[in-house]
Amino acid sequence: MPMAVSAGPRDAQWKQVDEAIGKGLPKTAIEALEPIVQGAMKDKAYGEAIKAIARKIVLEGNIQGNKPEEKIVRLEAEIAKAPKEMAPLLETVLANWYWQYFQQNRWRFMRRTTTAQAPGKDFTTWDLARLFQEIDRHFSRASRRPIY
Questions:
Q1: How many CA atoms lie within 13 A of 97 on its CB side?
Q2: Which of 5, 71, 24, 81 shows the shortest CA–CA distance to 49?
Q3: Model pTM greater than 0.90?
Q4: pLDDT in tens, 119-131
Q5: Long-range pairs for 45-48 at CB < 8 Å and ≥24 separation?
Q6: How far is CA 146 from CA 25, 27, 67, 105, in A?
């Protein structure tokens, strides 16, 4: 028995994002993502909001020189203002982005030694143990938070 498949409320907007990315227009894609984020938040479609936020952050980071540290800083700011329902998944994304940062900068971390002083907030200066501690912290926070 065939079933009618209805399009999602923001499918046309996602298509605009994909078209802009395909044409090499990241700023246009970012502009198209903003109403998706707003609409998904209003509808409490938190999974879709997270997808749109992450994609927006990646595009902004690419414009700023494709530095993984840009993505991390921007996502931390989004987590601080996100509804509690979004926090577990955003924490998981953040932990993965820290892991990617390590993977791309492994050679730097392998040369660093542990210092006697506690590391500061600038994660680009951390030693390997501190970075792994931060990755673990975010994965642990994600697993401890209830999913609504």
A1: 23
A2: 81
A3: no
A4: 677 777 777 777 7
A5: 46/83, 46/85, 46/86, 46/89, 47/89, 48/8, 48/10
A6: 38, 35, 32, 33
